[in-house]
Fold:
Amino acid sequence: MSTKRNRVEVAAFQTSKKGNYYCGDSYFYTETEKEFICAVADGLGNGEFARESSKAVIDVIKDNIHASIEEIIRHCNKELTGKRGVVLGILKFDFNLKRYSFSSIGNIGVITVTNDGKKKRNIPNAGYLAGYHRKFAVETGKLDDILNFFMYSDGVSDRELSERYFLNEDVNQIIDTYKYKSGQYKDDDTTLIAMRYTS
Structure:
């Protein structure tokens, strides 16, 4: 699936664990006049209950897209009381300030790739969200005129992430190549979102 918006082009791939009907991952992205937000939630375990938790978190994010990442995570944590926990990544762009910010809790990864091919992989906060208070950091950076971002769940392997095609400028080609090379059947729920920001 691919979407071209004013400043951010997005392509996404998602599949469930081999043998499962439900994918325990959920994702969401949207662009407004002032900002862009993307989130990936991975319910602990897999199957229907993992899906229930990840979807609940994404529904909270959809209702709070203009809130800060800190506020969004607090709302998500509250929603998870009594449910299976999730790992979560949230990425936001502020077009006016030309800044991006993100937080990743658990094994949701975020990679930035500059237009000259410099790749930076960010280390997530440890743990997961499950309804109780936990500490987490929010990283920030400058939005260059052109910048690629990748957000992914743990079904995407380190070996796959090191492939040269991740340096491609075209997010659709990256996702198409990933889909072709990674095969149809995965050992875990898998979500990969490729985003290209252009000022």
Summary: The chain has a mean pLDDT of 92. The helical segments are 48-62, 69-79, 158-161, 171-182.
